[in-house]
Fold:
Amino acid sequence: MRRRTTAQALALRSRIVLECAEGHSIMEVSRRSGVVPDTVRTWRRRFLERGLDGLCDDPRPGVPRKITDADVERVIVKTLEETPKNATHWSTRSMAAATGMSQSTVSRIWRAFALAPHRSQTFKLSTDPLFIDKVRDVVGLYLDPPEKALVLCVDEKSQIQALNRSQPILPMMPGVSERRSHDCLRAGTTTLFAALEVATGKVIGSLHRRHRAAEFKKFLTKLDKEVPDRLEVHLILDNYATHKTPDIKRWLLAHPRFHLHFTPTGASWLNLVERWFAELTQNKLKRGVHRSVQALERDIRTWLTDWNEDPKPFVWTKTADEILDKVATYCRRISDSGH
Structure:
């Protein structure tokens, strides 16, 4: 009776039963509940006969089911195990034609079992022979970072294009979304090197027109200047060739407080800075209009400054074992994975 999610009719019936149990007369319960006495008699009698089940509505008469459980099973099996003759996936119309049911019936069955043949998602399994070791290494830094050290997720977002629409943008109006031309004018590209501080969410960024090892070395030098000397620096980064050149290795030997932790190949999702790049893309770059690379870089620097005024860290929650178990599940579901 006190639960907020209980239906009002069920709550009223429960209140009637409880007040009767307290010894109140039928007329008194009728007056206090705002119902006629016959209603009180009905629910009191049904509770005495059937207990809690008696407070629920009885099945109501109606048209018998036309779609049997076997029909439902046939639709589900056909959806999961077969494809239509001239298409890559089923639609409600093609399934209705194949099973002899109505389109609305197929739609209800799919909704009931959360089937959506028109949708698909992408994934990629890493083939790195050191996948397990690298996952445990990187996730360990997220969940249990070392003391007196700074953990930075580093990557470069290359080929950021300065795009200007070929025609003026039509602004949003009530009932009409913003509209823009599908083609655009390209004014050049730039590359953003970024280091996301895992603990605080702050980002150290640097813009360059190219993304060679020389630019990466400059970015490492910038990190060395901005991170206090008393702290060790652990960098999480991918396997891009510019991160492993002889010149970079010599720089690392000269700066022993820097420690590199590489993510597995084909597993960029393990680097939290990619999540920050998604924020930048969605909120600034995707619909931005820039007539020059200088204007683009100016906007990126402004957005980076605003972010660092109120940074929001991305909290990693999955353990290495949970990640590896999920990958193993994917492998078992793929018939030709070889695992």
Remarks:
- The first helix runs from residue 8 to 21.
- Residues 8-55 form one domain.
- The mean pLDDT is 89.
